[in-house]
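On clarity, I found the account of how folds are encoded harder to follow than it need be. Since the whole study asks how a given chain folds, the encoding of that fold should be made plain. For the editor and my fellow referees, an illustration may be useful. An entry of this sort, consisting of the sequence and the corresponding backbone structure tokens, reads as follows:

:::
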Amino acid sequence: ELTVWDYRNIIASMTKRVKTGTIRSDIFRMRSFVFYLDPNLVEKVIPLSIIPSRVINPNQPLSTSVIHKIAEYCSELPTCVWLAFQMFALTGARAGSVFDLVVDDLIEIDGKWSVHIYYRKAADRKAENSTPSFVSHELPDEFVQELLQYIEETAFLRDLLPIKYIFIYASSMYRQETLRKPKVLSSRTFSNAIKKICKKNGIYNDDGSVPDPNAQGIRAEVGRSLFAKGASPEAVAAKLGNTAPVAKRHYDSMYPTDEAA
């Protein structure tokens, strides 16, 4: 027979997970289980007071002013980081969707280039519902030329990989004769490179803190700025790959929208 402490030990092991949403769902699931065994035991074992409150969106936007300041020092960034930074700002995509991009995800039709950003977070569910598994974003010509030049210049590195990822770089210790494989850009490398130039060049948030330049922050700013300019929830959802209710809940209330003018 399970005791109160048995239940609490189970909950303790489950709540070691990081994501608040997962913790909440696990605890509510456990409450249902305890209620099934003994309705009178629920509040003793899992009181509602221990359930963490839902966080609407924990990601803080990387403000447009900070994005513009970072762009001023783009020459100090590794090329792959700067190009990925622009891709995030243009598409509002999640980190995994951009770092997993391959050369074939760039599409040219009638001289216009676009990129397919895949819904990797919910690909299985979208496949079951027969809904598109990607968003197609048209890319500006200037950025495309810069990106294609980078792809051409790093083709010899990409040939060493089984998958032709776009955003790759060679280690500082790389020597061509060693045939050491290049690395695919990651969230940590991306964030650290940009944070380094922020500290070096005195780029700060309005509150004086050093920006945390991650993909989630750029995505949050893209969604927030679209709402600030009067975009509908459906339009924001179509760009970011959310549903309209999720887009509105996550990004419409981050800041006052008085900048729309």
In short: The chain has 13 helices and five strands. The radius of gyration is 22 Å. Residues 132 and 241 are 10 Å apart (CA to CA). Residues 20-37 form the longest helix (18 residues).
